[in-house]
Design brief:
- The termini are far apart.
- The chain is about 35% helix and about 30% strand.
- The chain folds into two domains: about 90 residues; about 160 residues, Rod shape-determining protein MreC, domain 1 (Thrombin, subunit H).
- With about 260 residues, it is an alpha+beta fold.
- It contains two helices and twelve strands, in the order ααββββββββββββ.
Length: about 260
């Protein structure tokens, strides 16, 4: 009980003392002392305030950044969904191949592809044997050939692109009906080779799959391989050669379609 009274007396004493100091500092005679005390503690107050404000600001910025990341992810998911739906609608609008013979597959990686340094040579998709995918099946986007299934596991498949150096297929030009062999050259390039000199090759003409007697795999006919960029015809050679470029940008494909049968 005595200790409690002592604490009350001490509290009252410091309360009165604080009030007197406050009044004294209000008088003009003590203003120099007040200014001195404020000048001494002002930098510390400023630092403490800045740090406190900084913590609050940093937290607000972090919260905004996190919200922005979440929003961007939602936008990306929405845009991907829109793109996938558009690809599906566009593919179903194509008569060759028919939508009933297709397996929709999403591209999940492109081995050895480095943007700005290398070009895509193959694609990995999220459909495999459990979905009915087998080695040798044609892979398309709209009426363009993308490549063929090179490997198929239970859940994924590897697609060799038509520009891959291991790819070749018998082909025919759309306008002049010249026949030859499309050969992938790697690095995103193709040539139309083995075209006899008596046949006509025209710059800008489309090259289609022939669909009969293909060299290494069975590719369905009348798929667009690409267009002729240039023709090299030398009278002393047995064959003429044309440089061909696909109408597709393989590095930007997110959805492709595997042809089950034809």
């Amino acid at each position: 009980m005595q200790k409690r009274k002592n604490w009350i007396y001490i509290f009252v004493f410091f309360l009165i003392l604080s009030f007197l100091i406050f009044l004294l500092f209000r008088l003009s005679i003590f203003r120099p002392v007040s200014s001195f005390v404020q000048s001494v503690f002002s930098p510390a107050q400023t630092l403490i305030y800045s740090v406190t404000l900084g913590f609050g600001l940093d937290q607000k910025i972090k919260d905004l950044e996190n919200k922005n990341i979440v929003l961007q992810n939602k936008i990306l998911e929405q845009e991907k969904l829109i793109a996938d739906n558009k690809a599906l609608r566009d593919q179903f609008a194509v008569s060759n191949p028919t939508s009933r013979s297709l397996i929709e597959a999403n591209v999940i990686s492109s081995p050895s592809f480095i943007p700005g340094i290398t070009v895509a040579e193959s694609l990995i998709v999220n459909k495999g044997q459990k979905d009915g995918v087998n080695v040798g099946m044609s892979v398309v986007y709209k009426d363009n050939i993308v490549g063929v299934v090179k490997e198929a596991s239970e859940y994924t498949s590897k697609i060799t692109l038509i520009t891959n150096s291991s790819f070749s297929v018998i082909s025919e030009t759309f306008e002049t009906k010249a026949q030859g062999v499309i050969k992938g050259q790697g690095a995103g390039e193709m040539i139309l080779d083995n075209v006899v000199l008596s046949q006509s090759l025209k710059q800008g003409d489309l090259v289609l799959t022939k669909g009969e007697g293909d060299l290494k795999t069975l590719v369905m006919p009348n798929l667009v391989i690409g267009k002729i960029l240039s023709v090299n015809k030398n009278p002393s050679d047995l064959f003429q050669v044309a440089k061909v470029k696909s109408l597709l940008d393989f590095s930007h494909l997110s959805t492709v379609f595997i042809v089950k049968g034809f």
